[in-house]
Amino acid sequence: MSQSLSGGWQQPPFVVSKGGLPTATTYFKKHKISKGETVAQSLKERFDYGQNPDKTQGGELISSYECDYMTADAEFLLSKAKYKATTGREQRRDADVLCYQIRQSFKPGEITPEEANRVGYETAMRWTKGKYAFFVATHTDRQHIHNHIYYNSTSLDCTHKFRDFIGSARAVRRLSDRVCLENDLSVIVNPKLHSKGRFLHYGAWVGTDRQLSYKERLRYAIRDALAKGPADFNAFLRLMEEAGFTVKLGRGGAISFLVPGQQRAPRLRSSTLGEGFDSEDIRAVIGGKRPLPEVGDPAPAAPVRVNLIVDIQERLRSGKGPAYERWAKVYNLKQMAAALQFMQEHQISEYSQLSEEAEAASARFHVLAEQLRQTETDLTHTSELMGAVVQYAKTRPVFDGYKAAKYSKKYLAAYEAELADYRAAKATLNDLLGGTKLPRMSDLKEKRRTLAAQKKALYADYREAQQRMREAVAVKANIDHLLELTDQRKNKEQER
């Protein structure tokens, strides 16, 4: 069984215990400080994606070792400050590795999310040998369940750092394969590589049963990058590079992306990639001025029991044929049956009850949405404050040394990056505190845990309320349409 993957590569033989598509470690990356960001911002940006509640069932599918995943960014930073104090060693800002990331994917239908998280935890523990803090986030937003494993580059005792080596990506893949085989899961045998040492696997198809064209691959990658909520256009480009695409800058600010396995680099413009994929469109999405571009994302949307019925006559006037009319009539009958079932389940017998149900469901959804928004704002504020506190504590000794040296130019040249981090951390603290007293780190951690738990509970209620509102509003709209048709027929009969 050999299927053609993007880039013209043929899937190699694989070992299967249950048959089907393979399991493989597909990603091994070291994360450094992003240009124009502080250390805290760089870590938070990466961890926010991994810990996304939409992808991890509200945080239920996250496990950790020797750290609290909710405060992992602050704890990783603190370990690096202790490392510097203990060893007296420090690296250049552009060479310092903050953490490492492993991505592990599984065959659809072969493993539960909980089991996938356990396998990821075991893989991380055996790879780090229990010497480095880590957390494992299991994502279920794709047809294939996959893990994102983040582990600290600084050891638990803060005496040394993890150093990747030549062939480290291959070594972690072999370990992952071994763990998967021990758990009766499928693995690829001797997979081939594409650019940057990453392994091609079925996830490259994004759930389709055919080979994707390079333009399709690029469109999916752009949409995925935008879905992560990049802060600006440069952050978007970094996400594209992390996904394996080479960014090329041309004359007049033109941007092209070289797809792995291809010789030509398609330009970022609508005439090449389709509507919504122009550079201005991308900037508008980042700025929140337009929705994500449509690419036919195969990731299944949350099921909605009741949908709006279609206006058959309007569709026929737009050019739809007799076949569409037959389908639409059957579809509308199903939706009306679903609407009646909804009313029976909720013991609704009067139209006034249905109206009240729709209004109440909408009101509850909007209240929960506002509560969730406020909680997320408070959580972000607390996380930023924690990061600034850690950064301030880390760099304050350098500034004290600068003062002791009577603001020596030589000292400034030697510690320019650290002093810049100190000034940035101090400015951030001033903005966030607004003149109030600096809280203790233990209080901040407790507040963050409380807010995170509150967010988790709110998110579950929010999703439930959202589903209830969609159903109630759709049912009412469908009943309104049915009553309108009935009234029209009565009026015609009276006219006769």
Distance between the termini: 68 Å
Largest sheet: 5 strands, antiparallel
Helix content: 40-55%
Task: Please list the strands of the largest sheet in the order they lie side by side.
Answer: 2-4-6-5-3
Give the rounded overall mean pLDDT: 77
Whole-number total of structural domains: 3
Total number of helices: 14
User: How much strand content do the residues show?
Assistant: 5-15%
Briefly note the CATH topology name of the largest domain: BirA Bifunctional Protein, domain 2
The class by helix and strand makeup works out as: alpha+beta
Which shape, going by the Cα principal axes?
globular
Q: Point out poorly predicted stretches.
A: 1-23, 189-210, 297-304
At CATH's second level, what is the architecture of the largest domain? Answer: 2-Layer Sandwich
- Rg, alpha carbons: 27 Å
List SSEs in N-to-C order.
Answer: EEHEHEHEEHEHHEEHHHHHHHH
Q: Quick summary of this structure?
A:
With 496 residues, the chain is of the alpha+beta class. 52% of the residues lie in helices and 9% in strands. The chain folds into 3 domains: 6-205, BirA Bifunctional Protein, domain 2; 214-286, no CATH class; 306-496, no CATH class.
Output the keywords.
496 residues, BirA Bifunctional Protein, domain 2, 3 domains, 5-stranded antiparallel beta sheet, 52% helix
